[in-house]
């Protein structure tokens, strides 16, 4: 075979390869979840059925919950209808996203490295921190004998100055882990639910109930009478990100939602929703 014939044969073979490449690429990379949403004209969002005011069961008119309003705004942005699916645990949200039972989860969900193995998290739409609700009578008095105010105790870290502090917290949470690390020589009582942990505080079994700051703020909106006896310690001690859980490695879908979030933050919509649900009690029945 001549050198010219060998060149022509190599040229045509390489041409065949490049002609076939788009077909292989198309079969390897299927439509993203965003394409599927647009095709069926419906966005299915998982919400947390036990975490008001992110999602409120049987809500007052105009107050469906923070995450519900955020989901509706995103569906409107995409030009599709919205379907909500109330769930409870991260495992449920993760499994439903993986199986396409839901497209994403807006559930007051905090990010964690372990969780990032099964879902991709969006940019945060809210920030929170480990916080506390402390019995005022357990705080050291000022020289005049008055109960100390928030000017002295602002964060849960300030309680490290008090000997004999005791805490209640929901077990196996970021807040529980924070206590175990920062107050390792202190009595920490962990419970399966926040309601039982709160009872430990109101029954005077512990000095301080610990949860994230948004949960503390919402609790005070639902039970304003608590403010007379208990002091909220909500100044930041660590950043905890509240983000949307989305399909693993679906970067096109995630990027679309991140742009939507950025615009809502820029225009003040996120801050309006935060004020509506965490800084007033109009949503409370």
Automatic annotation (TrEMBL):
Q: Does the keyword Signal apply?
A: yes
SUPFAM superfamilies documented for this protein: Periplasmic binding protein-like II
Q: Gene3D superfamilies recorded for this chain?
A: Periplasmic binding protein-like II
In the UniProt record, does the keyword Signal occur? yes
Q: Outline the extent of the Solute-binding protein family 3/N-terminal domain.
A: 42-281
Q: Which UniProt keywords apply?
A: Signal
Superkingdom assignment: Bacteria
Which PANTHER family does the entry link to?
Answer: ARGININE-BINDING EXTRACELLULAR PROTEIN ARTP, MEMBRANE-BOUND LYTIC MUREIN TRANSGLYCOSYLASE F
What is the protein's given name?
ABC transporter substrate-binding protein
This chain's source organism reads: Leptospira perolatii
Q: What is the lineage of its organism?
A: Bacteria, Pseudomonadati, Spirochaetota, Spirochaetia, Leptospirales
